[in-house]
Specification:
The complex is a heterodimer of chains A (116) and B (115). Chain A is mainly beta and 116 residues long. In chain A, 0% of the residues lie in helices and 54% in strands. Chain A starts with a strand and ends with a strand. Chain B is mainly beta and 115 residues long. Chain B contains no helices and 11 strands. In chain B, β7 and β8 form a beta hairpin. Chain B is globular and about 40 Å long. The relative contact order of chain B is 0.33. Classes of the chains: A mainly beta (116), B mainly beta (115). The interface between A and B is medium-sized, with 31 and 28 residues.
Chain lengths: 116, 115
């Protein structure tokens, strides 16, 4: 069965600091990887995704993530955070289930608080 | 733009009641999902469906059932609500035709309190 680990539960940064959120997954087959973000009071929305090709993917609002297959990792980065990045971030793995259908597993989330 | 609508934003039910949570999507998506979101536990998959009348157990199906009679509607049923089912419930949908690449589109969630 697939699983996702996010090791940072709560991160506090000052504005303009650099961000890196860790995500590791376990699954033996082909995966697609996602980062979702949930701003306070809003629904979850897609930040970025990886499915093939260049392992460095860019998303909205200046976020990027790097897929390192050998490390089973998909860490999220942003060079300079803003107060508006305060949110909860979820890493997700989309692996094909035993019946050939899509099964999406999420990590436990990382709450990012950016201090002005 | 995809819209996933959950019928209730807040719900308060008593222990032992049968509870229905409804979700409707308007983009003809094949896949639909029910998650519950709890602090420190992230999103946990309860059930999902990849076609009408098809359903698959997720990671925590105990105490829940689902119904998908029409493509656009996916219902989560709590047969006999218990206090440990107090949670935020999230519905999501995605396209199946693009295989594994399809991202999930989420509703705003239903916060269920069981007293």
């Amino acid at each position: 069965a697939q699983s996702v680990s996010q090791h940072n539960h709560h991160v506090i940064l000052s504005e303009a600091a650099s961000l890196e959120l860790g995500c590791n997954y376990s699954y033996g087959g082909t995966v697609n990887l996602f980062w979702y973000v949930q701003y306070p009071g809003q629904h979850l929305q897609l930040l970025l995704k990886y499915f093939s090709g260049d392992p460095l993917v860019k998303g909205i609002k200046g976020f990027e993530a790097e897929f390192i297959k050998s490390k089973f990792s998909f860490n999220l980065r942003k060079p300079s955070v803003q107060w508006s990045d305060t949110a909860e971030y979820f890493c997700a793995v989309n692996a094909r289930g035993s019946g050939g259908y899509q099964k999406v597993t999420f990590g436990t989330g990382t709450k990012l608080q950016v201090i002005p | 733009d995809v819209k996933v609508t959950q019928s209730s934003r807040y719900l308060v039910k008593r222990t032992g009641e049968k509870v229905f949570l409804e979700c409707v999507q308007d983009m003809d998506h094949e896949n639909m999902f029910w998650y519950r979101q709890d602090p420190g536990l992230g999103l946990r998959l309860i059930y999902f469906s990849y076609d009408v009348k098809m359903k698959e157990k997720g990671d925590i199906p105990e105490g829940y059932s689902v119904s998908r009679e029409k493509k656009e509607r996916f219902s989560l049923i709590l047969e006999s609500a218990s206090t440990n089912q107090t949670s935020m419930y999230l519905c999501a949908s995605s396209l199946r035709k693009t295989g594994q690449n399809s991202p999930l589109h989420f509703g705003n969630g239903t916060r269920l309190t069981v007293t």
